[in-house]
Design brief:
This protein is mostly beta strands. It is about 15% helix and about 30% strand.
Length: about 500
């Protein structure tokens, strides 16, 4: 009897200790996770931001679509990842090229609260999505697109998107509001990113380089924030058309045909931008569009410099208010640079003594190519007071596809030509081009012995060199642009960073 009583007492003590411990744990937990009828620890785990997200891993080089998509067993294609991903998932891409050759089906269509993520730290320099497919847009008819973004897509970050088709769009956003950040858009035959319908995304910290038509096209009734991007050596950096609106802040426009063009009833507000080295005008406004370059309440702090024809061209009947905006070259149209001062005539060579431009922002350390082409758009009727260039698109566009005609055949990738080796010692046993005939050199960045061996397996004559104080492998020197592009593409297919010098 005494033993039984002692056992009961021990059980009671253990039960009391368990209750006290549970009460202590409950008191220590935040109120918002104390949900009824759920064990306390299960609630804590469920509320963890790292454990509540389902991540699907993809690796185009080592993955297998028959696997589960876990970190240790990645899939091979984004296509399969989207097929199995639950709403709210993150699809994490390993460096590499994702193309039809690696099993992708284009266009890649994203929706259902999915986020696509590569490597945002280097704007997706080595995480490349390349391809094209036919998409019927409810607002823009049939289009050639690499990636389609539909409703509820969360974000696309850290990838490079290329669509070599002559009418190709990199990303087509259809009445959606994702965050598109830390990406590179290059060599798209039409446009890097197209915003359509009633979209309201954030476009932030992207690199738009060498796109034949537009870097960013905004139309329909879209309203967008464009922040801290670089638009370089592209057709029109940003095109605003129809009834779209954009707040454009802290961006760099360098070496484009036109930095920014507005058409239809579009509206643009610009703050703290640099628009420089345009082949034609820095900014062109036509039709009924409106532009705010700085107001009495908020200084614009935009800089226009070294644009070859005009810094600002206002071909509308609306005044452009530009308080706090600086121009170096000529302007045309109704532009008000000072409070209470209204200009109705051309402005010529003002603010000549501007301070030096600040250090260029947001340009990736290894541009994919320095070779450029000049895009030409299909002509549309142009107002009598607006000389070249024509508008991007007629105001009665409807559902017509936007078409851009490349300046030359060099605007498209040539994939069937091989380079001529050019070793430093010009050994007679290896064919080489006389130095006087060299126009293009292809450099490649290698980070380890494995990458170096991959390069040498294709180009045994590759040799180490220094360019702009940094080490590279040079795989060839060429007198022919097409051959140089072929070498560059071969290396990009390996997921390597390249530099084409002309």
């Amino acid at each position: 009897m005494e033993i039984s009583d002692r056992a009961q007492a021990n059980k009671l003590k253990l039960r009391r200790a368990t209750i006290l411990l549970s009460m202590t744990l409950i008191a220590a937990l935040p109120y918002n996770i104390l949900l009824p009828n759920v064990p306390v620890m299960a609630q804590a785990i469920a509320q963890s931001p790292t454990l509540s997200k389902n991540t699907v891993y993809v690796n185009s080089q080592t993955g297998d679509d028959s696997q589960t998509g876990k970190k240790t067993s990645p899939l091979q294609t984004i296509t399969q990842a989207l097929a199995i991903a639950k709403p709210g998932s993150i699809i994490q891409l390993a460096p590499g090229t994702y193309s039809q050759e690696t099993g992708e089906t284009f266009p890649i269509v994203i929706e259902d609260k999915i986020a696509i993520q590569g490597d945002p730290r280097n704007q997706g320099y080595k995480t490349i999505i390349r391809g094209d497919g036919y998409f019927v847009s409810p607002t823009g008819a049939g289009q050639n697109v690499a990636i389609v973004v539909l409703k509820n897509t969360v974000s696309i970050t850290g990838v490079t998107v290329t669509n070599n088709h002559s009418r190709g769009h990199g990303i087509w956003v259809e009445s959606a509001s994702p965050k598109i950040a830390n990406n590179t858009f290059t060599r798209n035959g039409n446009t890097g990113v197209s915003l359509n319908g009633n979209s309201s995304p954030i476009i932030e910290d992207n690199y738009f380089y060498n796109n034949s038509g537009n870097g960013l096209l905004i139309y329909g009734t879209s309203q967008v924030e464009v922040v801290k991007n670089t638009f370089e050596q592209t057709g029109f950096g940003i095109s605003l058309v129809q009834n779209s609106q954009a707040k454009i802040t802290d961006n760099l426009f360098d070496g484009n045909r036109i930095g920014i063009i507005l058409e239809g009833n579009a509206q643009g507000t610009l703050r703290n931008n640099e628009i420089i080295n345009s082949q034609e005008s820095g900014l062109t406004a036509i039709a009924q569009s409106r532009v705010d370059l700085g107001s009495d309440d908020e200084s614009g702090n935009n800089v226009f410099r070294s644009n070859k024809k005009l810094d600002i061209q206002n071909a509308t009947n609306n005044e452009i208010l530009a308080v706090g905006t600086q121009v170096q070259g000529d302007t045309k149209g109704n532009i008000n640079f000072e409070r209470g001062t209204f200009q109705t005539t051309e402005k010529t060579n003002t603010f000549r003594d501007l301070p030096p431009l600040p250090t260029r922002r947001n340009v990736v350390s290894r541009p994919l190519s320095t070779a450029t082409t000049t895009p030409v758009t299909t002509p549309d009727p142009t107002p009598a007071n607006l000389p070249a260039p024509p508008p991007v698109i007629a105001s009665n566009m409807g559902n017509k596809e936007l078409v851009f005609t490349p300046f030359s055949s060099n605007a498209r990738m040539i994939l069937d030509l091989e380079p001529v080796p050019y070793p430093p010692d010009a050994s007679p046993s290896v064919a080489y081009i006389p130095p006087a005939q060299v126009k293009y050199k292809v450099l490649v960045e290698v980070l380890n012995n494995i990458e170096e061996n991959e390069v040498r397996s294709l180009y045994p004559g590759a040799f180490k060199t220094i360019y702009q104080g940094e080490p590279w492998l040079q795989v060839g020197a060429f007198s022919n642009f097409d051959k140089a592009k072929r070498a560059e593409q071969n290396l990009i297919n390996l997921g390597l960073g390249t530099y084409l010098i002309d």
